[in-house]
């Protein structure tokens, strides 16, 4: 690997994996002071902040026993994150992030107004916890942080000072020389408490849910190991977050989380960008401290990390064409690099979900434990305070680096990241009884979640034994699914003499493209090896599967690339099926998850090319088939019939 690492970039990446621009475009007005809403939220006495916050409603939302899907964002950064500030997001904080998510217009770091066409149902702001808010608040003259003696070293008086300050902060982490003045309990607590107060201010039970959350930003040797930490209750949180300054090891984060739970603070972690982890997100033999993986390690991971991001701005972590050569839809928004290292690639094995789910089952057979029964969400990782979900209205994710179509199409590589390959943000779909912190958190904990590429496809999956083929004709089929089976994220117990059946249903996003197909992806393990098969189970337009392969032909594309347009003259509004596994072996561990594909539509880069009057770039596909992925349902055989292979699945998977 040929690495080209700038001095500041190296410091920043070693500090914890922050994205960093080598060249900073100053804000259009040169301002570094806070907007009024951020200043009011980040400063003042607790009494002042409480008075400014709206009164909490006493009206409780109506609970739906069949559960509703709520779409939300679990990963967004504001000017309180060091890297966001240094790339030009200097004035918008958590307040604006929630305002934007609720449908209000706010200012993009590029200087123009942005607004969501449809508000989200929930959001957690996940600023990097390492020196969170210090650079931003030290330059806000109304903030108490700006009055500290150490603040003099954080002041930005001219554009080049931004890099100087960032180098100072990031370098302290890289050299393991923490700045004690910025880690004093009262200093850290002041920012943390403001974060909590802002989340509480915008929490509207039944309408919009906010979470107290943050990102733990570990990237040892430039390999992504980041986790976003979410709390169930804003009244039950620690005095300060656990950061990568405390430890770079996820095992230490989990131990801290275990301690929080014992103290009554319920929380969970969501890992992200496994595709950029260089193979260490899903280890098989030793943990991140070099110790042999055992049952205790597996259980601790399961207890603390029920979810992971399957798709976000920096790529998709479902699978890779090299891992799944027989999956024609595996090549979706693939990115592979080490954060901060030019001309780098991330190792495949140990970096993708489908392989990890299968390897986990092989570990169960060989060693008696499975650490990789995790669920999925989609998310963003935008550093703009705002997030782009729609291909036709993409405005980047990294402040002034990619704020314009011209900048995005220029072919830049920043800190190892090829800007052209960035994706629109994913969304988390959560099936919960009501739009409240408790209900949504509990759904995430039980993994009744799915991820999308940014569209709002509705998807349901139930697994059971003997679902009637006409079950979907019953208007109460959801209740049947819960009563007689398990939803996504569940475990199917063995039942002698039967193959599992699955109820799958998908409804298109009303504001987006029609649906192409529903697929069920099955993975299983046998004799220490892992296998996979992709089944088309429901599709549009009366297409006929190939009699030899069973694969359904590609749906017709209606995309006009030159004009960046498409029509919904093909595809379906709704697809559904009761499907039985035709190759079920009751002695083998297996998992099943659903992938729903839309018909082809123009990619954001094609829309940008149209806006500029140029040809779409050839480095990326001009079209995409946006999609949704569910959390799997797992099947485990009875102990007397299980495959007792003795070899754990290793680096090379056997692919069917």
From TrEMBL:
Presence of the UniProt keyword Cell inner membrane in the record: no
Region feature (Disordered): 36-65
Instruction: Recite the UniProt keywords alphabetically.
Output: Signal
**Which stretch is the leader sequence?**
1-21
Question: Any stretches that span the bilayer, and where are they?
Answer: none
Low complexity biased stretches: 36-46
Name the UniProt record assigns to this protein: DUF3604 domain-containing protein
Native source species: Lysobacter niastensis
Lineage, uppermost ranks: Bacteria, Pseudomonadati, Pseudomonadota, Gammaproteobacteria, Lysobacterales
